Every structure is written in C-alpha cells, then in structure tokens.
Amino acid sequence: MATFIPQECLRAAPWKNGGGSTMEIAIAPPGASLMEFDWRISLATITASGPFSSFPGIDRSLMLVDGDSVQLTLDGARKVTLSAAQPMLWFPGEAAVEAQVRGTTTDFNVMTRRDRCRHQLEKITAPGKLVRRSATTLLFVAGDGHVLARGGEQQFALGRHDALLLDADDAQEWRLDALQRSAVLCVDLFT
Hints:
The protein is mostly beta strands. Helix content is 0%, strand content 58%. The strands form four sheets. It has a six-stranded antiparallel beta sheet with strand order 2-3-4-11-6-9, with no helix packed on it. The protein has a five-stranded antiparallel beta sheet with strand order 1-17-14-19-12, with no helix packed on it. A hairpin with a 2-residue loop joins strand 15 and strand 16 (154-158).
C-alpha cells in the first residue's frame, strides 16, 4: 500500500557543523540509523558554506529544488555548480565535498548503500504518466502546484514537497495529473 508523506510532517535535524539541516523523507529499513540504512531519502537545507559529512560505501544523488545555486568542490579538484541549468549531481559518499553558497538552498538527497542496493533519480513533469521500474519508488513534488497521483484503485493529492512511497504491491503505472506543469522527482530503488 502506498504511503503518503506530507511535507508538514517532516522534522528538521540540524547538522553537526551548523551549516544546515536535514529532513528525512523515508529510510529503509524503517527506523535505521545513519550507519545502518540500506537507502535514505531526505531534503537538505544549506544555510552556510562548509563540508558535507562523509558516508563511505554510499552512493549519493543531489538535486537542487530551492535556491539559486550551490557550488560543490569534490575531492579538492572537481567543481560543480548545481543550478536550474544543471540541477543534479551523482557522487560517492566517501568523496570530500565542500559546499559554497551565497544564499539558502534546499537539495533533494538520495543515498544508497552500495553493497545492498542502488538508485536512479530523475525529474519528470506532471501532467504525465509514470511506469515504475522498481519494487520501491518514491515520488516527490519539487515544483509549484498540486499533483494528483492515481494508480490502480489509489489516488493521492500531493502539494509542494510532499512525497509518495510506492512498494511492490502498488500499481506499476501511475497517472500524474496537474492543472499546471509541475516538476516531480522520481526515485527508483533497486535491491
């Protein structure tokens, strides 16, 4: 059965370095710690420049959802700017990552433990159709406006920063309806 995760139920946890906070959207297994999870999906708000935490053995994807841009330096050499033109980045969790921000940004963050599972993150547009590729799929409304997600006998109204977690028992095809075009992030989790 699909699980609706409204944005107002997410709780922010401050980073140890004071440079931002994270709101966990979903984690597996449920209740796992940062050292035990198979996969974790969250929203990270960056308020100050500084280093990212290291997550050895974890593959990460970041997608900018709010703010103008954030510049990331990976392992002291590779510089990438996440912006509307290039909103997504994949990198290994053990990389040394330094963030430079001019204003507050919010990033959608997917982490999977490399030896247990993998993920694919993509941006799709509602209205449209979604054909799932994995037993576990998470939909996240990144854009403005509301999205009505309908699959099988289920339907859910999602607003900005709401999520919908689909499992193996849920429909493979979903219709995403919206009155205005809205960005939806789709995470497929493969175990």
